[in-house]
Amino acid sequence: MANDDPEKIGNQKLDTYFVANLYGEWTPEALSNAVTLRVDVLNILDRDYFSRTTPGYDSSAIEPYHEPGRTFLVSAKVDF
Questions:
Q1: DSSP sequence for the chain
Q2: Which of 23, 31, 44, 66 has the CB geometry, 3.0–4.6 Å to 35, for a possible disulfide?
Q3: Cα separation of 70 and 46, whole Å?
Q4: pLDDT (tens digit per residue) in 7-47
Q5: What's the angle, vertex CA 30, arms to CA 34 and CA 42, rounded to 5?
């Protein structure tokens, strides 16, 4: 029998959650659009959650893998 309720796995009701991410990019004009700098903040609200696709979530015998808390990333992209 198929379960059409996206908030349930088997007979287990899943908790809902909201995760917010934010990013900003800057391309210096002096570098002719060759370099892009980016800053990311993942999980801004520092929520404890695990992805619905985490292995083991569908079994109560296995502890799911929690996603990381608030994360800051800085990156640069160079086009050549």
A1: -----TTEETTEEPPP-----EEEEE--GGGTT-EEEEEEEESTT------TTSTTTT-TTSPPPPPPSSEEEEEEEE--
A2: 31
A3: 5
A4: 555 566 767 788 899 999 999 988 877 899 999 999 999 98
A5: 55
Contact 36, 27 (CB under 8 A): yes
**Can you give the pLDDT at residue 54?**
52
Residues 6 or more apart in contact with residue 40 via CB below 8 angstroms:
21, 22, 23, 71, 72, 73, 74, 75
The rounded radius of gyration (Å) of the Cα atoms in the chain is: 19
Answer whether 0.70 is exceeded by the pTM: no
- One-letter amino acid for residue 39 of the chain: V
